[in-house]
Amino acid sequence: MQATDSKSGSTSSSRKAITATAKRTAAQGKASAFTIGGSIPAVVTPFTSGGHIDMGRFEALVNDLIVKGSDAIVVAGTTGESATVNFEEHCALIARGVQIVVGRVPVIAGSGANSTAEAIELSLAAKRLGAQAHLSVVPYYNKPSQGGIYKHFKAIAEAVELPLILYNVPGRTVADVSNDTVLRLSKLRQIVGIKDATADIERGIDLLRRAPSGFRIYSGDDGTAVALMLLGAHGTISVTANVAPEQMAALCAAATSGNAQEAKAINDQLAELHQTLFLEPNPAPLKWMLHRLSHCSAAVRMPLTTCQPATVPFLEQALQTAGLLQAKRRGLTSKSAR
Question: Are 314 and 272 in contact (CB under 8 A)?
Fold first, then answer.
């Protein structure tokens, strides 16, 4: 009897070990299959003077970002003014983004909401429209607990068969998903990464140290992105990359490969740009810069407003320091020569 009990216990232990190994393997397989990284512009949504989405300018912007080395794009995120586009416009942006890209780079669709049901609806739309992944922000305004945040993202992950990137930006949402909650969520099959816009390097180091293999960590703060990538982050979901796509692509390539000297040199050139892009609420400064470079209008939707005149000289100087006005002039000269 004793021998039988011992054998039974051994078999039970073996089964538990096998099950645990299978779960780890499944989780790692899920995560390792998701390899998006590098420079990922959070694309603006251009508007006409009448306030409608300018799809022609949107197409030109997306094509320009891809040609200049971007590794993926985010459509209808915060920088894309997702808060002021309606559901039909949101879906139209995702659908058009997928059509323009034609598989050249992955499309990550913004799908966040502070209502779990609405977030699921947007996420299902993202999958239906052909996005390769979706980006979902921590619920804002209603201030959920860590338990509530966990259940919110778990419900989305279980409802939608599409890789999900968490988005933590407590400066906008007030609610802040803790690293412990992120690690709990990382065990769910569809949750593949996080955009960390806290600008807290110490916190980022902790997450990089404890995150499971294959879980993708992206900076969401251009000013500290180079540091986080040199420490092991997989890329950045970037505002700056809209206006300086070539430089940001080179920066990300250098930083993620551990070339600190080159990454620092590029970041030094862009540092003023990183800062001035947030002198007023995003994306107003970015859209002013894109207008200055002849990419789209500076129009934003209310309650946002275009940049104040006092801000403009700082934006102009940042473009000059980054070499972007010189590049524009070279482009115009080249066109006139042809």
Answer: no
96-148 residue pLDDT tens: 999 999 999 999 999 999 999 999 999 999 999 999 999 999 999 999 999 99
The answer to whether 194 touches 228, Cβ cutoff 8 Å, is: no
In this prediction the pTM is 0.89
C-alpha separations of 175 from 168, 195, 312 in Å: 9, 15, 32
DSSP codes of every residue in 278-332: TSSSTTHHHHHHHHHTTSS-----TTS-PPPTTTHHHHHHHHHHTTHHHHHHHHH
Catalytic residues: 167, 195
Domains of the chain: 33-267 (3.20.20.70)
Supply φ then ψ for residue 237, to 5 degrees: -95, 110
Letter string b/e over residues 150-176, b meaning 16 or more CB atoms within 10 A of that residue's CB: bebbbebbebbebbbbbbbbeebbebb
